[in-house]
Every structure is written in C-alpha cells, then in structure tokens.
Write a structure and sequence with these properties.
The structure is a single chain. The chain is mostly helical and 215 residues long. The protein is 68% helix and 5% strand. The chain is built from 8 helices and 2 strands; from the N terminus they run H-H-H-H-E-E-H-H-H-H. A two-stranded antiparallel ribbon has the order 1-2. The longest helix is centred in the middle third of the chain and has 30 residues. It is flat, with a radius of gyration of 23 Å. It starts with 6 loop residues before the first helix and ends in an 18-residue tail after the last helix.
Length: 215
C-alpha cells in the first residue's frame, strides 16, 4: 500500500501540477481549501457575496501564478490564508472608504454671525471617520486570524476550547467529556488560550506568513 503523502510533499507536487496547467489539480486544491478561504474572507467582510468573490480571486490567482508560492516558506494552507486575508482586507478598505466618501462630505456649511453661509472643512470629522475605519478593519482582521488559529491548532486543544468556551463546561467537565485527567484538561485549555491570545500579535510562530502583520 502506498504511503500517504506528507503535507509538504503534497504541497510541492500540487504546485508542480498547477505550473503544468493541470485543471484537475486546481479542482483538488479547491475541494481541499475552498471552505478555509471562504470562511476567512467571510470573517473579514461579513458578506456572503463578497466572500464568494474573494474565493474566486484567490483560486484564480493560484491558477495564473502558481510560481508565487514557495514551499520553503511554509505550507500551502498558510500561503492561501495569507493571500485570502490580504485580498479580503483590501476589499474591506475599498468598500468602507467608498461608503465613507459618499456619506461624509468634504465640507460642511454653517451660518456666521451675519447669517451668511460659510464653508468649513470637516477635517476633524474625516480624521475620526478614518480612524474608526481602521479600527473596524483591525477588528475584522483579528477575528479572522483568531478563526484561523482555532481551526489550525491541534484537535485536542481545539476540542477542549470548544467544550469550555462554547458549551460552557468547566475544566472538570471538560476532562470527563474528553476522557482525560483534570490536569491534562487544564494543560490543553492553557495552551489553547495561549495560542488564541496571539491573534493580536505580529510574527506569531505557526501563523500564516505576514498574517499577523500590518493590515
């Protein structure tokens, strides 16, 4: 029986097949990673149709530029997450900036003491709006990064977190549900939370390259 390919070897073979223009390879890549790509895009954008567009753009880029992936830099999964994150954040900024421009005019008009109308530049309002835009982009980016960390962490840690924080189980109940000791349940929860806390960090080991950097 043939030994199953390890992820790095699979990644290299996939890139080679894409470089040869094998449409079947693109289909296999899509089947494996489309849910990851769409989920991350949706977490950033909060819109199904926008996430669909980003998903198409990501796989179109992979098909047209397979050479931009370097297996030495990390797994294909992380590279796809990085690409998805970058495109989704760009789209969010474009969308929010366009909405800001339409809803926040450059000048406002006030009446002076004589009753005539004067134009004043709304620079303070614009600055505040831009700062709020950056905060929204940052929040969406951190949320998407947290999702990626949870889905990428080892299954035992993820299971412990899901029981403790989604099902509101304490560490004793978590230990009983998982069939492990209470000390092991505490260890898994501690490690899981340490990983999750890095959603706000930059350059986090195990995260997609540049994924925690400037957004």
């Amino acid at each position: 029986m043939a030994k199953q390919d390890t992820p790095p070897r699979w990644d290299r073979k996939m890139q080679q097949r894409l470089a040869r223009g094998e449409a079947a390879a693109l289909g296999e890549l899509y089947d494996r990673f489309a849910s990851l790509v769409h989920g991350l895009a949706h977490r950033v954008l909060g819109d199904e149709q926008a996430a669909d567009r980003i998903t198409r753009e990501v796989f179109a880029h992979v098909w047209q530029h397979p050479d931009t992936y370097d297996a030495k830099e990390g797994p294909l999964r992380s590279w796809l997450a990085t690409l998805t994150h970058r495109l989704a954040v760009q789209r969010l900024r474009q969308t929010e900036t366009a909405a800001l421009a339409q809803g926040d005019p450059d000048t406002t008009h006030t009446d002076d003491a004589s009753g005539s109308s004067t134009g004043t530049t709304s620079s303070t309002s614009s600055t505040g709006s831009l700062e709020e835009l950056e905060r929204r982009v940052r929040r969406a980016s951190v949320a998407a990064r947290a999702d990626y960390i949870v889905t990428s962490m080892p299954a035992p840690l993820r299971a412990a977190l899901e029981l403790a924080y989604f099902q509101r189980r304490d560490y004793r109940q978590t230990a009983a549900d998982l069939g492990v000791t209470e000390a092991e349940a505490r260890r898994r929860l501690r490690l899981g939370l340490q990983l999750l806390s890095t959603a706000h960090d930059t350059g986090t080991p195990g995260a997609p390259p540049e994924y925690g950097g400037a957004v």
